Amino acid sequence: MALGPQDLTVISNLISQATAGGGANLVQQDFGPLFSQYKITYGTALEFIADSLYDTQTYPPAGATILTFFQTQFTLGNLALTNMPLAGMLPDRQGFLVMSIRTFFVAHPTVMAPVAAPAVQVTASNDLLNLISNGVLALNFLNKDYGKFPAWLLPAGGGVYSSLATAGIAAPGAVIDTANNGYPDARNIYVLEQPLFLPPMTKLGVTANFGPTPPVVQVATPIKVLFDGLMVRPIQ
Questions:
Q1: Strands, E, within 70-220: which ranges?
Q2: pTM
Q3: I need a surface site. Which of 70, 85, 95, 205 has the fewest CB within 10 A?
Q4: Sheet of 175-179: strands edge to edge?
């Protein structure tokens, strides 16, 4: 979902408040009962930092019914894959306000022989179409569901957009393509109507579901899930 002027104004105001005075004004806002409990525990001495949470899981060529995200703790060696401070949860005294959700499908360029019309050309674009058509991202914590989002609603907001070319080689030739989920524009993201607060020390359940008949793809496809928002913690 592309951001409109009103969405941009809301996010801009939140970030401005988050970076001014340690976010004192944001503490007074109502972000739901989970955040209210956080305020009771830690009071009003909270700071808000513009940040993101992301994780990567790889969809295998033979298909997978479910991929589970945010269960690996980051190290300096895997920071490109995840930045989770703990496996499966946020540490004590650290929460996160999720303001938008992105998914990024790492579809590498592929070389395939062209097929005769009118058959489907099996390439990275076709693989991506099958993945986002069947994939559903589900959020669950505290034994409650917090949303189920079809993958085609969650564009990446950046990255390589789909392109297609034919190789200039002798017959039968080849088709080369790559693709990404959504036009590469930083404003092309799915924005939550109400920020979702992830409390500390609470097991996160974030899954991408592709059943009951998961699609087969040409090559293993890494899938990244990213939460844009504000990291919340007591002022040190």
A1: 95-105, 107-112, 136-141, 144-150, 163-166, 175-179, 190-198, 205-209
A2: 0.83
A3: 85
A4: 107-112, 175-179, 163-166
- Distance separating alpha carbons of residues 124 and 51, to the nearest angstrom: 31
Distance in angstroms (rounded) separating the CA atoms of residues 88 and 113: 42
Contacts of 180 (CB under 8 A, 6+ apart): 104, 105, 107, 128, 156, 159, 160, 161, 162
Helix ranges (DSSP H) in 77-168: 124-134
185: left (phi over 0), alpha (psi -120 to 50) or beta: beta
| Greatest C-alpha distance within the chain | 71
User: What is the per-residue pLDDT for 170?
Assistant: 62
Residues in the chain, how many?
236
pLDDT at residue 24 in the model = 64
232 and 47 in contact (C-beta within 8 Å)? yes
Q: 21-62, pLDDT tens digit by residue?
A: 556 678 888 888 889 888 888 888 888 999 999 999 999 999
pLDDT at 4: 56
Lateral strand order in the sheet of 144-150:
66-69, 205-209, 136-141, 144-150
**Site of tokens 């924005």:** 191
Distances (CA, A) of 7 to 2, 11, 33, 139, 184: 9, 6, 23, 22, 18
Distance between the two ends of the chain, CA-based, in angstroms?
Answer: 37
66 touches 211 (CB < 8 A)? yes
Please identify every stretch of the chain with a pLDDT value under 50, giving residue numbers as ranges. 1
Cβ–Cβ under 8 Å, residues 222 and 106? yes
Closest to 201 in 3D by CA, of 111, 89, 108: 89
